[in-house]
Amino acid sequence: MFAYLKRLEGIKLGINESMQKTRDLQALYSLEEIKDLLPSLRKILEKLRIKVFIDELDKGWDNSEDAKYFLAGLFQAAQKLNLISSNLKVYISIRQELFDNIPQIYEDAQKIREDVEVIRWGKAELLELIGLRIAHCFPELQPQDGIRRWNAVFAAHLPSHKEDSVDYIINRTQLRPRELLQFCKLCVEFYVEGKRIEEGTITAAEEVFSEQKIKDLAAEYRFKYPHLLDLFEIFRGRKQHFEKDELEYLLLAAACGELDVDRAAEWVTEVDYLDLKKILWNIGFLKAKIPKQMSNSTTKGVYLGHYEMPTINLENVQYFTVHPAFCYFLSLKP
């Protein structure tokens, strides 16, 4: 049984070895290989509870068809394993946008909906998470709340940016815990001395973080939209915020070949500039300022990304901004 689970883990780690892995996955999620073991396994499960947690499926994710089939197969295998006994539970953690964009999974969503729990991360949840990490390292901060724990380690305010440090760093993520931890880890690596991690250290960490994130984004979509980094270069040195007409003119120039997008030209010049805008929005490169008629008290006048508000008519949006995570790398002006 454990050898079987390790092979499932191998499938997760070996996404790029496509052909052989596909055949392996087909065999694995049919459960044929452990069919003879099921009676013994059920007997063991009468006395023992087993829980299997599969995480980090988005590491190295390339959005290819093979990767989607791997993930769909893993879900099928987990469903079948969970039917063996109530004492055996396989849990799979996956980003919402990956789940939504894999038809093989989404078509079966109705069947497994009661087994799916959605976890949403916002600033409060991320602050609570990092606060727990800080308290683990500094037990004397246990009685404090999340923001006090944060301010015990980081300078509370960044004068040059006129923004609290917690907001500044979280705004450079897509509200994913791993990204926040990644940025904070870089801050610790660049920390030299002083009572707290100051603005200069955060800026040094941001330089590395920004490059990592934009390259990660390009890698994630390298099969669907090859050479995205070459497309991102048309934004270099420009301002961070765009009016609708300004953005569309820039993208039109790229789509028509007036602006050099190098290797990305093979697909960019075949795409309508409005579709190009949708692509940059959908992958999280752009954020949109929510129109008044679509906003509520918490989102009014706020720039939101696709991961925060996936359903929006971009033609009603008059103002856009490049996601703050990518601004340092592209040398964008505020």
The spatial strand order of the largest sheet comes to: 5-8-6-7
Q: Assign the structural class, choosing from mainly alpha, mainly beta, alpha/beta, alpha+beta, or little secondary structure.
A: alpha+beta
Number of beta-strand segments: 8
The protein's oligomeric status is: single chain
What's the number of helices?
Answer: 17
- What is the mean predicted local confidence, pLDDT? 86
- In percent, how much strand structure appears in the residues? 5-15%
Separation, N- and C-terminal Cα atoms: 56 Å
Largest sheet: 4 strands, antiparallel
**Unreliable residue stretches:** 12-16
What would you report as the Rg, rounded to the nearest angstrom? 23 Å
What overall form do the CA principal axes indicate? globular
Helical fraction equals 40-55%
In N-to-C order, the SSE pattern is HHHEHEHHHHHEEHHHHEHHHEEEH
Total domain modules: 3
